[in-house]
Design brief:
Elements lengths: L1 H28 L2 E2 L11 E2 L2 H26 L1
Antiparallel strand pairs: 1-2
């Protein structure tokens, strides 16, 4: 159970760190959903939020896979 809490916590911390970075990159390079007649938002919305979530998941999964394999092959 502790492993799940640690995994959730690390993914949460990473997504908190990656989200502002993804937002900054989206605004810097114009990766935005611009408002229009068929849109409900009033300001340009960054489109890289999913990338931040995916990266936090992938980094956490890779870290725990590495730790599991390390424990497996140590014995």
């Amino acid at each position: 159970m502790l492993w799940f809490i640690i995994a959730f916590g690390s993914a949460l911390i990473l997504v908190i760190l990656f989200s502002p970075l993804a937002k900054w990159i989206a605004f810097k390079f114009g990766i935005l959903d611009r408002p229009g007649s068929r849109k409900i938002h009033d300001k340009p919305t960054p489109l890289l939020g999913g990338v931040a979530i995916y990266l936090s998941f992938a980094v956490t999964a890779a870290m725990f896979l590495y730790m599991a394999l390390d424990m497996l092959y140590r014995t």
